[in-house]
């Protein structure tokens, strides 16, 4: 079903689909003042997901995070209106691999921006819980924004039954076991992305990447330590370490 052409919320006209996920579809829209917007539409039975994302993301205000501006309905479907994050999803943006060899500076800027956004998110007591390429939109120069907060919530939040948040290839060991997740679990996902940038491929389960002479491999290994308690939970430290090891001044 297409919603293109509809006017929703406070005068946002839906133009075209720009993204699809397992739980939602995202439209490019334009508001009454001519500002571009992203409108995320959920199936009717997932109203709780929309409410949860609005609750946790509507107060976020950081240049490296997409913002949720309001909640609305589209033909009975729950929907969120937010700022538009420009660019391509991370793995599409970095087609030539390994990214650290072919586009080292832009790629590391992307990770620095993700860590910057996570540092802010974590400072507010929240974790993202789904760090993966599809949730990182990257511009030509490497500037990036973290999007999609429908799995986000308070750090170490517990549920009545184990909840396995995230996407398998980027999921921390504790996430795979359904344990409560803290900032160190988000940093595990960043570590997986850094390893992909160094080696040009994702690590297979229980089959670690071979050692690399790249000085950033040290940080990759630190961020992907299987033991949750031994892994860093400090995104600001990880950003500074990334830049130090790379010899970059951002």
From TrEMBL:
<keyword id="KW-0418">Kinase</keyword>
<dbReference type="GO" id="GO:0004674">
    <property type="term" value="F:protein serine/threonine kinase activity"/>
</dbReference>
<keyword id="KW-0808">Transferase</keyword>
<dbReference type="InterPro" id="IPR008271">
    <property type="entry name" value="Ser/Thr_kinase_AS"/>
</dbReference>
<dbReference type="InterPro" id="IPR011009">
    <property type="entry name" value="Kinase-like_dom_sf"/>
</dbReference>
<dbReference type="Pfam" id="PF00069">
    <property type="entry name" value="Pkinase"/>
</dbReference>
<feature type="domain" description="Protein kinase">
    <location>
        <begin position="12"/>
        <end position="250"/>
    </location>
</feature>
<protein>
    <submittedName>
        <fullName>Serine/threonine-protein kinase</fullName>
        <ecNumber>2.7.11.1</ecNumber>
    </submittedName>
</protein>
<dbReference type="InterPro" id="IPR000719">
    <property type="entry name" value="Prot_kinase_dom"/>
</dbReference>
